[in-house]
Design goal:
Elements (H helix, E strand, L loop, with lengths): L2 H10 L3 E5 H6 L4 H16 L11 H10 L4 E6 L2 E11 L1 H6 L3 H5 L13 E9 L6 H16 L5 E6 L12 H6 L10 H7 L4 E6 L12 E7 L3 H6 L3 H13 L11
Parallel strand pairs: 4-5
Antiparallel strand pairs: 1-2, 2-3, 3-4, 5-7, 6-7
Helix pairs in contact: 3-4, 7-11
């Protein structure tokens, strides 16, 4: 993903903006109202997919807001919050040790967050149905540039669903995940959404979360920071990238349509 190309696409997305929870809180916006919208979006996306164990609650978000608000992102369209992305910092040892979504996220509280950790884990991406198809891309671009490059992380890990697997359950899960269509795309469109942005498959995890469409499987995927070695050799690049990311990709809407 080229920084300039991503920025040009971003500028063409009129009415779309992305910011972090930490930015909203610093501007004095109400944490209760931000949490309300996070919960509403999360439930509208995941309520029909899984059970209550995986839906944000006020208690989960209070913990997340306290521990790592700078790693919680939200996207606005015309002043209305329509998407969120939530994650925390970790290390590769914990990525191997904790398997299920509940284990990795500390039951949604993010208490496994490691200040100064060298990898990120994306616990959630929730996009309201019916909004612009570009919202997910803008949110992912901001996350990679500001979250991964800006913090000089080695990699970002995510757990991808494979929601069409239940329609292909006669296949072994490994075949379904790694096989391609005639055009060379992954069989599952959700997996394709990530792999087209240079994520790579790390591990197939049974009982990752209660997800009947994916037959409870999750696919751990990874986006490697191509500049990680350069950051280690030239430490001044990290704060420069972080500043550039904030200026180019993050902004709070000038007017919010809800009572913030």
């Amino acid at each position: 993903m080229g920084l300039i190309n991503a920025f040009l696409k971003w500028k063409r997305s009129e009415g779309v903006s992305v910011c972090r929870v930490s930015d909203l809180l610093k501007k004095g916006h109400s944490p209760q109202i931000i949490m309300r919208d996070f919960i509403h979006i999360n439930r509208s996306v995941w309520g029909d997919i899984t059970n209550e164990d995986y839906i944000w609650t006020e208690e989960m978000l209070e913990s997340q807001f306290r521990i790592c608000p700078e790693h919680l992102y939200c996207a606005f369209e015309n002043g209305e919050m329509v998407a969120t992305a939530s994650g925390f910092l970790s290390n590769e040892e914990d990525m191997k040790k904790y398997k299920s979504w509940l284990e990795k996220t500390g039951n949604g509280t993010f208490y496994h967050h490691i200040q100064g950790g060298n990898i990120g884990f994306g616990a959630d991406l929730s996009v309201m149905r019916g909004v612009s198809g570009k919202i997910s891309e803008r949110l992912m671009e901001a996350l990679l540039v500001c979250g991964v490059l800006g913090y000089g992380l080695k990699a970002l890990y995510l757990g991808s669903r494979i929601p069409r697997y239940h329609k292909n359950k006669e296949m072994k899960v490994g075949d379904y995940v790694f096989d391609k269509t005639h055009s060379g795309k992954p069989l599952d469109p959700e997996l394709y959404f990530y792999l087209k942005d240079r994520f790579e498959i790390v591990e197939i995890i049974p009982d990752y979360m209660k997800d009947p469409e994916s037959l409870n499987y999750g696919v751990l995927i990874r986006w490697r920071n191509p500049f990680y070695t350069a950051y280690r050799l030239l430490p001044f690049l990290k704060p420069l990238t972080r500043m550039a990311g904030r200026l180019l990709f993050l902004r709070i809407p000038s007017s919010l349509s809800t009572d913030y």
